[in-house]
Amino acid sequence: MDRSELADFLRRCRARLTPAAVGLPQGARRRTPGLRREEVAQLAGMSTDHYTRLEQARSSRPSRQMLAAVARALRLTRDERDHLFHLAGEEPPRDRPITEHVRPGLLLVLDRLTDTPAQVVTDRGDILAQNAMAKALSGDASARPEAERNVIWRYFMNPAARELFPVEERDRAARVTVAELRATLAGRPDDTRLVGLVRRLRAGSEEFAALWDAHEVAVRRADVKRFLHPVVGLLELDCEVLLSPEHDQRLIVHTARPGSESAERLELLRVVGLQDLTHG
């Protein structure tokens, strides 16, 4: 059980809630944002003293029932709820190794996607396979040094990686990336490669360290992403993330809405990419 991390997470989750969001009256003017500790305790059906000790890292290990009640009181998402349980030491880490062998079914799907960018990525951020469109969009990962085949490392440690995104998108992309990585680590705190990646990123990137300390947790399953490609220009694409049954590999697919300008540019990218492969 990581008492200090658990306490920090609870405080941040409480601070973002309003009384109206949980069905409580606003009452007198509040000096600080968020719910009061006694309000969270009331919603969770526990004593204010016990909840306060949780937030002050002075509590004994909470029961699973108590954690579930606190998660409901704080309106946590499923990913945040799982993170809360992991911090309290209530869900053991997975002992299975994370394979870098791409499942045949994923490769089959990847091969069938000829008109849209798609790639298989581990939950650590390592690119395992790309189709031709993904290479045309973001470059051939297999041609990079090993460290830069990791999309998280590359985004925070190589400024050139951000040139693929409009300036106004870069902060959000960084925040979402770190939140996903935190959720992954919560599920596998004994994964030495994962722990090492986080340690190196915290040491090498002040931005990453600050975002990590913000303690946001989420797993992205769908999104809208904007790319600024050097040849075809701005692309606004729907991003779908398909998880393998074990959730350690993800098929990430980017599609353009039919009839849109991005769809026309994506088709141009397909032609340009095919020409590069033919003459490369």
Q: Largest sheet, order of strands side by side?
A: 2-1-5-4-3
How do the helices and strands follow one another from N- to C-terminus? Answer: HHHHHHEEHHHHHEEEH
End-to-end separation: 54 Å
Q: Flag low-confidence runs.
A: none
Domain HTH cro/C1-type: 34-81
Organism: Streptomyces shenzhenensis
Protein name: Transcriptional regulator
GO molecular function: DNA binding
Structure explained in plain terms:
GO terms for molecular function: DNA binding. This protein has 280 residues and is of the alpha+beta class. The chain has 2 domains: 85 residues, 434 Repressor (Amino-terminal Domain) (Orthogonal Bundle); 176 residues, 2-Layer Sandwich (Beta-Lactamase), CATH 3.30.450. 48% of the residues lie in helices and 12% in strands. The protein is built from 12 helices and 5 strands. Strands 2-1-5-4-3 form a 5-stranded antiparallel β-sheet, with helices on both faces. A hairpin with a 3-residue loop joins strand 3 and strand 4. The longest helix is centred in the middle third of the chain and has 21 residues. The radius of gyration is 22 Å and the shape is elongated.
Short description:
This is Transcriptional regulator. The chain is an alpha+beta fold and about 280 residues long.
